[in-house]
Amino acid sequence: MVSTGNPHLPENIKNKLAQIDKDVTILVFVTPTCPYCPRAVITSHKFAVANPKIKGYMVEALEYLGWADRYFVRAVPKIVINDVVEFEGAYSEPFFADKVLEAVALTKGG
Q: pTM higher than 0.85 for the full model?
């Protein structure tokens, strides 16, 4: 995906993400045994490929306990976007994209 620059997203999602002109940081907290975590991480990385303003990070919650405590990780995957929007679960790309846009609207500056 990175080598081709193609995030393999539907056009409507690419169009939504293309509107973003502020920096976005997506933290996806995971654990090694979570069957849903890879989907959430891949979605965040697709978004990062679609728009260079978006940075997607996978954070292994058991390895980074300080971060997991800071963000009150109690279930995974837990997604934190710009420290202003949070949700748990591996939701669809449209839902995830809407949450990113919500975070952009709530983020000051950038």
A: yes
DSSP single-letter state for residue 76 = S
* DSSP one-letter code for 97: H
Question: pLDDT for 36-92, tens place per residue?
Answer: 999 999 999 999 999 999 999 999 999 999 999 999 999 999 999 999 999 999 999
* Domains contained in the chain, CATH given: 25-104 (3.40.30.10)
CA dist 42 → 19, 56, 65 (Å): 21, 9, 22
**Cβ atoms of 51 and 16 closer than 8 Å:** no
Query: What distances in angstroms separate CA 35 from CA 30, 76, 90, 94, one per listed residue?
Result: 10, 10, 10, 20
